[in-house]
Amino acid sequence: xxxxxxxxxxxxxxxxxxxxxxxxxxxxxxxxxxxxxxxxxxxxxxxxxxxxxxxxxxxxxxxxxxxxxxxxxxxxxxxxxxxxxxxxxxxxxxxxxxxxxxxxxxxxxxxxxxxxxxxxxxxxxxxxxxxxxxxxxxxxxxxxxxxxxxxxxxxxxxxxxxxxxxxxxxxxxxxxxxxxxxxxxxxxxxxxxxxxxxxxxxxxxxxxxxxxxxxxxxxxxxxxxxxxxxxxxxxxxxxxxxxxxxxxxxxxxxxxxxxxxxxxxxxxxxxxxxxxxxxxxxxxxxxxxxxxxxxxxxxxxxxxxxx
Length: 307
Ligand code: FO1
Known about the structure:
This protein is α/β, with parallel strands linked by helices and 307 residues long. It has 13 helices and 14 strands. The protein has helices at residues 9-21, 45-54, 72-79, 90-104, 109-119, 147-153, 177-183, 198-202, 205-213, 234-240, 247-254, 271-275, 291-304; strands spanning 2-6, 26-30, 36-38, 41-43, 125-128, 135-140, 143-146, 160-166, 186-189, 217-221, 224-225, 228-229, 260-264, 280-284. Helix 1 (9-21) packs parallel to helix 2 (45-54), helix 1 crosses helix 13 (291-304) and helix 7 (177-183) runs parallel beside helix 9 (205-213). Bound molecules: ligand FO1.
């Protein structure tokens, strides 16, 4: 089994390639720290991004939401005076209504996610990191805000002083998370935000411990290329927290368990420094412009885990 740790858009794009080239079963452990409740509905953006992408439903331009979706419901809510900064499409809302109904019936997020991926014909196993509530809260100069408010509402304008993962101390891995790590022959850390996506998954103590204990090769792909991220605020967050915004800075965050790291051609000069952390480095073109590049990056990563 190949087990992966995943956030949103970058991970989903990589997984689109991986599901096409991997011969083994795939298990995807997904961040839920970005989950938010809006209009009484439970929204799990990273789970939805991964599921919509693997089901071929995602809006490929944005990387989130459903292609061809409309926003009539949101328009209606705006007329009633609701805030509508989070763009929930009409088709997308069906997912959040379904999830919320099942949560109210007492089902766990992991059970609901499994039903969702089966309903959409996805073979890979998709597991939320936890069934417990974990909320990524950013402490800014203007006070505490939810990660989605920082990213979507204020468009990353606030200066972030600290990150708080509310509820993480008590959070237990969802059923299947630790088992997927223990049974994996290879583990891949997707090119996702190392602070608020992968970092959040790793903050669940048992997850990090089992990564340290496994004999499976663990390989990561850098989401930072030439000091910047392709999508999302990882670069801004790393810089605010005083970290080096580079593939080296990311590798350092994972160096206690990482065996190998895939970095972009433009960062080849960082190879030696990263290898000084005890991590073998592989260099390739990591920009996933289309399906061809996603498949090539997945194939390259799998071959690199052979070392
Ligand atoms: N990202 C945005 O930048 N703007 C949005 O309005 C937005 C809405 C949205 C709705 C459903 C969903 O599943 C994801 C959505 N995202 C939106 C993406 C999301 O905020 C982030 O990409 C992830 O949480 C980061 O991993």
